[in-house]
Amino acid sequence: MTLVIPFLLLVALQASQDEATLCEALNGRAVPVGTKAAALGRATGSTATASFIAGCLAFGEGRSDKAADHFERATERDRTKSLYFDWLGRAYGDQAQRANKLKQGLLARKTKGAFEQAVALDPNNLSARAFLVDFYQLAPGFMGGSEAKASEQAAAIRARNAYRGGLVGATVQSRRRDVIGAEREYALLVAAFPDSLAPRTALAQSQISGKRFADAFRTIDAARAALPASRVVSYLLGRAAALSGQQLERGEAALRQYLAHAPGPNEPSLAAAHMRLGQVLEQRGQRTEARAELEAALRLDPALKEAKDALARMK
What we know:
It is built from 17 helices and no strands. Helix 4 packs antiparallel against helix 5 and helix 7 packs antiparallel against helix 8. The longest helix has 21 residues.
């Protein structure tokens, strides 16, 4: 039997996906050229879509209070869109993190309610479910936090998407300070999805944080063999070298390789790479070169405390 999707429903689904893609783009680290201009053209008028896009623009500019107003208007105009309630929850949650204690309780309830409505409207909205996991784990009990409900949402995500469920499961375990459990999740994902970068880097980061550098170098070397074009893995090799004092020559080469490319969204900054290279060079006895790298890091990011501390130590 062939499933035929009515034309108007197909158009509605494509429009919803387009709105979701546009909103994510407006709230990425680097907004693509022309994206904001296109969004501005769609953010005028009295439709639910116009209100939603206006909210995405405001949220991308760091104005979560204004974004919430627009998203509220979007949900009032169309109460069937899970996407709109998803982003309304994000706006409320962002406000809650900045609010005083008197307002936090109200905003927490609104955040929880918006995400729960998003999931009720679309049980396959994994973004809203993931945010609910965060809420249930991070909010205190009197605001609606619940470890049991966090586990329920994590299981629901895993049932629908093994990869994303594994990543969420690892986050849940990390918040419970179960390092072994989190790393087990990452290792299972590496075995099941060998071409995926995220679980490999997360596993290496966990091992580096735990100062288990021999394990970290093994994980990084396996990642380099599987994903030789990944510059993020090069950065991780340099970071492990800088923090361990081991494999310094390899670490220096890897960081210079990383600095030769333009980092994409969610990749380590060039400031961080300069800082790690400075730390490696300091340990190799090249203090003049190390100082130059640390100064380059601070020019790019004056708030980089580790770079400031390293420079102060070298005076």
